[in-house]
Design goal:
The chain has one domain: Gcn5-related N-acetyltransferase (GNAT) (Aminopeptidase), CATH 3.40.630.30. The protein has 161 residues and is α+β, with helices and mostly antiparallel strands. Helices cover 32% and strands 29% of the residues.
Length: 161
């Protein structure tokens, strides 16, 4: 079941993000990887701006995906599924629920350029790598320069998706 996440889900969301982000260890640049990947105070700030949908199995969240309208686009933020529930279509279902909610003409997602599995997932759903990623990351995200250097942006026309 997919549902809107609430403030009371913060601990579980934090657990999902940090558990799933373990996949980045040894893949993304070592200077950008940390554990916890997202501390609770950082998630609390994100939850002020990002609307999260969660995927439940037997009443327990196992996957989350957020969306954040910003300026003239919508960003997909923090898409994570617990490792033991990956490759079961959960992220696809979450994305399918988010797409109709997007009001902006463009839906963007940023990820690490070495996270081939994430890039492949979004491409499978019609997103394409955008050549002006530095400009997009500087305009729509608040991330350090080093992260901009090691990331990609994918996008899709949300009105045709």
């Amino acid at each position: 079941m997919i549902r809107q996440c609430r403030a009371g889900d913060a601990q579980r969301i934090c657990f999902i993000i940090n558990k799933a982000a373990e996949a980045y260890g040894g893949v993304i640049p070592a200077d950008r990887y940390r554990q916890p990947y997202m501390p609770m105070d950082e998630l609390a700030a994100e939850m002020e701006r990002v609307a999260f949908l969660g995927y439940e199995i037997d009443g327990e969240l196992v996957g989350i995906m957020g969306m954040e309208p910003i300026k003239d686009v919508t960003l997909i933020r923090h898409a994570y599924v617990l490792p033991e529930h990956q490759r079961q279509g959960i992220a696809s279902e979450l994305l399918g629920q988010i797409m109709p909610l997007v009001k902006a003409p463009v839906l963007l997602v940023g990820t690490w350029n070495d996270a081939a599995w994430a890039i492949s997932f979004y491409q499978k759903h019609g997103f394409r790598l955008l050549p002006d990623k530095d400009r997009l990351l500087e305009k729509y995200w608040d991330i350090p320069r080093r992260q901009i250097e090691t990331s990609v942006v994918l996008g899709i026309d949300s009105m045709q998706a």
